[in-house]
UniProtKB/TrEMBL annotation:
Recorded GO MF terms: NAD binding; oxidoreductase activity, acting on the CH-OH group of donors, NAD or NADP as acceptor
Domain D-isomer specific 2-hydroxyacid dehydrogenase catalytic, residue spans: 55-310
Native organism: Brasilonema sennae CENA114
Domain of life (superkingdom): Bacteria
Pfam families in the cross-refs: 2-Hacid_dh (PF00389), 2-Hacid_dh_C (PF02826)
Matching Gene3D superfamilies: NAD(P)-binding Rossmann-like Domain
Family: Belongs to the D-isomer specific 2-hydroxyacid dehydrogenase family.
Protein keywords: NAD, Oxidoreductase
Designated name of the protein: D-2-hydroxyacid dehydrogenase
Domain D-isomer specific 2-hydroxyacid dehydrogenase NAD-binding: 105-279
Length: 316
């Protein structure tokens, strides 16, 4: 069996590959260091999201049967050209959940404890105490998307004594959630939530889902956190909501155009915390990604069900 593996982690993978497998390496542009015409497995890497890279590999591997992508979101992968091929796609759902969940807690604490303001006062050498600092306890958190990331967020938020609502395509009771509702039913919960976290995949149904109507329905003291994809939010509507104080503020780890252009007004809004799509970063993510691929490779070789198979029609 021949594999296509990312050049960045080839040295770490090679000692763990079965002795009867061979491989060629692929770089970030889709260049291969050997013949992939008989390759049936492709392991792409975290930054191999450009369609040109993906299409180049597809053209080089006509017998490809299984593609594992370590990223959770696959919207950039599911191009018309990709969907023409009968390829099993698995993703890295779950490997980023812990660092992202920790970032969400950090965003909420930063807002509740006014850490950005306090740090600014420190740089100005000002001893000021006449502003409100809140607790997370007894606050309501709404998590839109209760997959692996949403569940890790809930586990940590519950430890702070928060009330937690969630939404998912097929609602069911979940640990640490006080209530889980179905698609679009989360809108009726907006007026109860001080914190709203976007943790849903980007699909045709979720694109621009956080629009002016949704933002108008949120509490004026609500804080929006996006650790998913920028296109889920209607950015002009969000900009207006923040400028006109429809909501209290937002933490944005994902934006429509990345990197965020220097001229974007989001950079200078006092009620916005911008981070450069880094909430998933952790040295342990690479370890988890390789372990997941190797486990799935064993399953694939023995004809067992693979973990994290993507429903290409649903988009996740």
């Amino acid at each position: 069996m021949k594999l296509i593996i990312p050049i960045e982690v080839a040295d770490k993978l090679e000692p763990h590959l079965p002795s009867d497998t061979t491989f060629v390496r692929a770089d970030i542009d889709g260049n291969l260091d050997g013949d992939a015409t008989d390759a049936e497995v492709y392991f792409s890497w975290l930054y191999y999201l450009k369609p040109t890279t993906l299409h180049k590999v597809l053209e080089s591997a006509p017998q490809l049967r299984w593609h594992h992508a370590p990223n959770a979101g696959v919207n950039n992968i599911l191009t018309p050209k990709y969907l023409e091929r009968d390829i099993i796609l698995t993703n890295g759902a779950g490997v980023h959940a812990v660092p992202i969940a920790e970032f969400v807690i950090a965003y909420m604490l930063s807002y509740a404890k006014q850490l950005l303001k306090l740090h600014k006062l420190q740089t100005q050498q000002q001893w000021q105490r006449d502003f409100q600092i809140e607790e997370l306890q007894d606050k309501t958190l709404l998590i839109i998307g209760t997959g692996g990331i949403g569940q890790e967020i809930a586990a940590r938020a519950k430890a702070f004594g928060m009330r937690i609502f969630g939404s998912r395509r097929h609602p069911q009771p979940l640990p640490n959630f006080d209530k889980v509702v179905g698609t679009n039913e989360w809108k009726a919960l907006l007026n109860e939530a001080e914190y709203v976290v976007i943790a849903t995949p980007l699909t045709k149904e979720t694109e621009s889902m956080i629009n002016a109507e949704v933002l108008r329905s949120m509490r004026p003291d609500a804080y929006l956190i996006n650790i998913a994809r920028g296109k889920i939010v209607d950015e002009p509507a969000l900009l207006k909501a923040l400028q006109e104080n429809w909501i209290a503020g937002a933490a944005l780890d994902a934006v429509f155009t990345e990197p965020l252009p220097p001229e974007s007004p989001f950079w200078t809004l006092p009620n916005v915390f911008i981070t450069p799509h880094c909430s998933s970063h952790s040295p342990k993510v690479k370890e988890r990604s390789l372990a997941l691929f190797l486990d799935n490779l064993t399953r694939y070789r023995h004809g067992k069900p693979l973990r994290n198979v993507v429903d290409k029609n649903a988009g996740y």
